[in-house]
């Protein structure tokens, strides 16, 4: 292979399946996310659709529910699009379904913008130096973090970060970070630190946080309408000891530093690295964790003529098809809590004992958020009226 994916579509451009399910939408939706067990039957795994080559580019499944609602499930070959590209495509489908003559944003190919430069030495330098980190390929010492191979050993739970929770996280940061840290920086730093605390690994364990950074809007020259993959996963790296004992600002700073690496040259260097690593994947360790921010993809805003969806985002059952994914990957989605408050939802899987610890840390954050809210409420003083 030359590194490209040949496209031949005699009859397999995309597949469409239809299903009627004797369930109502209320049985599928829980706060912040979909109920994964309820989705085990509706999500049909089309045989031969899991590979990269010789597989349909798109699969659509429409499931009708007894309440009159429906589920649109989409499976896409990730070599074609990223999350924002998929949203652009589905948005175009939604606009045509609502009667528009043409999509408001036309597709742009321009794949040459992110072509590699065959500068192998530069590619090696830019690759976060992950290969030099102790505990990687050259280290045969067993990890203190056990990697679950059975999803039954994991507990799935969703967490919600609204304005109060984010304010409580910011309150733990020094003034300069309170102003500079984005919502993602704050949430990612908090999750990385306290997920590590919950797992209680060996203090010398190398913990890696991979954060997805989209190159769109970063002076990369990527035009509006470009729907191909335009993201990278720079890594924040620390030992468990430093991550657990340092203040929260330590983790947040590492997240910001990792994100700030990404520019057009970084993106092209990653392409060079993929070519250099052809046939070999980077090593996956138990200390590795990936946060994928889908808040700007806005799947929840898609309207095919029936209004906005109750939920838009990845299906937990589909993620769980690969045992390591729910353990290693979490998605951040724009969401609302039970009070209708806007915020960010995160779905995470951990072993039971670790999940209990993380829930306790979240409870501490909620108590802190109440204190922060109380601190910023206007003070009310009783007024004694004068007799004059």
Automatic annotation (TrEMBL):
GO MF, one annotated term: acyltransferase activity, transferring groups other than amino-acyl groups
Record-annotated membrane-spanning stretches: 16-34
Annotated Gene3D superfamilies: Chloramphenicol acetyltransferase-like domain
Keywords: Membrane, Transferase, Transmembrane, Transmembrane helix
Record flagged with keyword Transmembrane: yes
Annotated InterPro entries: CAT-like_dom_sf, Plant_acyltransferase
Keyword Membrane found: yes
Family membership noted in the UniProt record: Belongs to the plant acyltransferase family.
Protein name: Uncharacterized protein
Organism: Panicum virgatum (Blackwell switchgrass)
């Amino acid at each position: 292979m030359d590194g490209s994916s040949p496209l031949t579509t005699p009859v397999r451009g995309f597949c469409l399946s239809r299903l009627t399910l004797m369930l109502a939408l209320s049985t599928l939706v829980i706060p912040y996310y979909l109920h994964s067990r309820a989705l085990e039957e509706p999500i049909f795994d089309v045989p031969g659709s899991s590979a990269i080559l010789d597989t349909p580019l798109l699969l659509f499944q429409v499931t009708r529910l007894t309440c009159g609602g429906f589920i649109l499930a989409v499976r896409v070959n990730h070599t074609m699009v990223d999350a924002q590209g998929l949203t652009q495509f589905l948005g175009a489908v939604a606009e045509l379904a609502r009667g528009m003559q043409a999509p408001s944003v036309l597709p742009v190919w321009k794949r040459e913008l992110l072509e590699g430069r065959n500068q192998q030495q530069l590619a090696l330098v830019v690759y976060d130096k992950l290969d030099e980190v102790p505990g990687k390929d050259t280290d045969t010492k067993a990890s203190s973090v056990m990697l679950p191979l059975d999803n039954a050993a994991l507990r799935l739970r969703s967490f919600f970060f609204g304005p109060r929770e984010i304010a409580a996280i910011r309150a733990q940061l020094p003034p300069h970070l309170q102003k500079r840290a984005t919502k993602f920086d704050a949430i990612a730093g908090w999750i990385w630190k306290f997920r590590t605390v919950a797992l209680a690994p060996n203090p010398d364990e190398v913990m890696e946080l991979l954060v997805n950074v989209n190159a769109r809007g970063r002076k990369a020259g990527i035009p509006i309408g470009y729907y191909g993959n335009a993201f990278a996963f720079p890594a924040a790296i620390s030992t468990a000891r430093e991550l657990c004992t340092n203040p929260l600002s330590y983790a947040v700073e590492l997240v910001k530093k990792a994100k700030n690496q990404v520019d057009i040259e970084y993106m092209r260097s990653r392409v060079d690295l993929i070519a250099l690593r052809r046939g070999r994947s980077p090593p996956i360790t138990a200390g590795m964790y990936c946060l994928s921010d889908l808040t700007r993809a806005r799947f929840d805003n898609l309207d095919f003529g029936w209004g906005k969806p109750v939920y838009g985002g990845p299906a937990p059952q589909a993620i769980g098809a690969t045992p390591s994914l729910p353990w290693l990957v979490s998605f951040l989605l724009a969401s609302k809590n039970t009070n209708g408050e806007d915020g960010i939802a995160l779905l995470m899987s951990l072993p039971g004992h670790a999940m209990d610890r993380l829930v306790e840390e979240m409870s501490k954050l909620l108590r802190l958020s109440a204190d922060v809210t109380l601190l910023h409420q206007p003070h009310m003083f009783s007024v004694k009226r004068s007799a004059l």
